[in-house]
Amino acid sequence: MSGNPGDLVPIPDVAVRLGTAFAAAGHQLYLVGGPVRDALMGRPVSDLDFTTDAHPDQVLAIVSPLASGVWTTGIEFGTIGAQIHGQPCEITTFRADRYDRVSRNPIVAFGDNIADDLRRRDFTMNAMAVSVHDRAFVDPFGGLVDLAKGVLRTPATPAESFGDDPLRMLRAARFVSQLGVSLAPEVEAAISAMAPEIGRITAERVQAELNKLLAGAHPRRGLEVLVDTGLADVVLPELPALRMAADEHGQHKDVYAHTLQVLDQAIGLEQRGAASSEPTGSGGAEPDLVLRWAALLHDIGKPETRRFVDSGQGARAVTFHHHEVVGARMAKARLKALKFSKDMTEDISRLVFLHLRFYGYGRGEWTDSAVRRYVTDAGPLLERLHKLVRSDTTTRNRRKAAMLAATYDALEERIAALREQEELDSIRPDLDGTEIMAILGIPPGPLVGRAYQHLLALRMENGPLSHEQAVAELRRWHSEQQ
């Protein structure tokens, strides 16, 4: 690349203002890391990260007159945050840290030059900087060349870099997903050797990296890095456990490969759905992490439930009976361990539990009651369940795939038809609790709840009843309880 690469990095007006203020105070200021990398890749740049020779108290004095808000939560690590003309900015003093290699916390030491600061960063493509004052491009570790090659390397040795901060190993897999890069051989070897060290990282930070990986443009590649290096054995052991050897008759497909294909297909449906007018929460323009996690975890119950049975005449078949039940339990346990929110944990495990329900539909033998229950059990997850079930077809038999797709089309058509007839998405009994108590002349208590559940089951089975029919049924049921 000829000329100054720094000329290819746009310097926003906010950065120019900051650069002028720092220069007036006799200090350097560099745009650094992700914003520089993303600008060179033609990716959008949101938050701005800067590094400077000014110490935190000096940064505060320079920034405060320009900022509408300043935060100092990272000041002990040399970082000052500021909101300047609506733009979030982080300014960090040059660092020359050492790590205690036990708690992973840095022993903070401020540096006096940009090269030493860049050396302590995670990867060479994140160790590039541009002077805000004169656009001088600083790249002491060949990050630009690595970026052009799409190769992830570390400024220091990989062992030193990952020893300082094991989370960088997960970040490597995340960048493979987000940026489409590949690992340098020495980086992959170091991660494989040091993978157990990731156990020192808190669950919250692991969860954040896994979410970013799954939300990336190439999550399959990132997941393959996790499995191939052994990182997944520590942070997501259910995934490598899917690499079950087929029996000698090849009676089942590679569940690991199947899972990655299901994830790919779910993302494809998610992205197509984003262009439609689907309701909020069913995908939208942002990556649907609930759907992606459900696709990733939908078959994790298979290793625990695999059984080989005699299918007659000496042949054997493989079964995974109730793997959706076991898988839902396992998914909930893993997501809790990773400190996911209660709502997200429940939604993902619910999708895992329901993903096989459709296969009882057969050739349309379900009654209207069964269709209502399918919709009611899925609730607000129904659109996601549609995508997950359709994604779960990975057979190479085109006839079988077409038949399954047509059958699911028919189910969706029946759901749509029932929606036109009744409020399918919010099925309630024809009488509420207050009405039940008034009709039967009973106070609040367990009997009201049992009556409510009876009327709900009746509503699911038969569809809406008139008020007179509901009252008559309630009185009939109540008389049988005497």
TrEMBL record:
EC number in record: 2.7.7.72
Q: Which residues form the HD/PDEase domain?
A: 251-423
For this protein, the record's InterPro entries field holds: Bact_CCA-adding_enz_type3_sf, HD/PDEase_dom, HD_domain, HDIG_dom, NT_sf, PolA_pol_head_dom, PolyA_RNA-bd, tRNA_adenylyltransferase
What Gene Ontology terms describe what this protein does at the molecular function level? CCA tRNA nucleotidyltransferase activity
Sorted keywords for this record are: Magnesium, Metal-binding, Nucleotide-binding, Nucleotidyltransferase, Transferase, tRNA processing
| Named cofactor requirement(s) | Mg(2+)
- Which SUPFAM superfamilies does the entry link to? Nucleotidyltransferase, Poly A polymerase C-terminal region-like
| Record's protein name | CCA tRNA nucleotidyltransferase
This chain's source organism reads: Jatrophihabitans lederbergiae
